[in-house]
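ok posting inputs for the iron/sulfur cluster job
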Amino acid sequence: MTFIITEDCCGTCDTSCVDVCPVDCIHGPMPVEEIRDIQASGDTSALDDIQLYIDPFICIDCGACVPECPVEAIFDEFDLPEEHSHSLESNAEFFE
Ligand code: SF4
Ligand code: SF4
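and the output
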């Protein structure tokens, strides 16, 4: 089992889920500190198409990240809505 981040993260990508993950398995296409620098700059257009992903081989299914997400982009893989079913693969592929 794992948890999954959907593309609903795009456009928000505030990295708040990263801080609560006990096993540091949430990562993005650029370092979290770089994402935070962009957020702090005020011009977040560079983050419009960027989301974070959960490494399914490290996630311990604690669920701590779920309530931290302001856009409800994180799901238990077994509760993943049908319209986000492709996110199961995209999260795993990100870590290949
Ligand atoms: S469910 Fe727990 S271990 Fe998995 S990504 Fe979320 S905070 Fe990390
Ligand atoms: S808390 Fe939600 S919106 Fe923020 S980075 Fe994590 S998944 Fe994306």
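notes: The chain is about 25% helix and 10% strand. Residues 12 and 70 are 8 Å apart (CA to CA).
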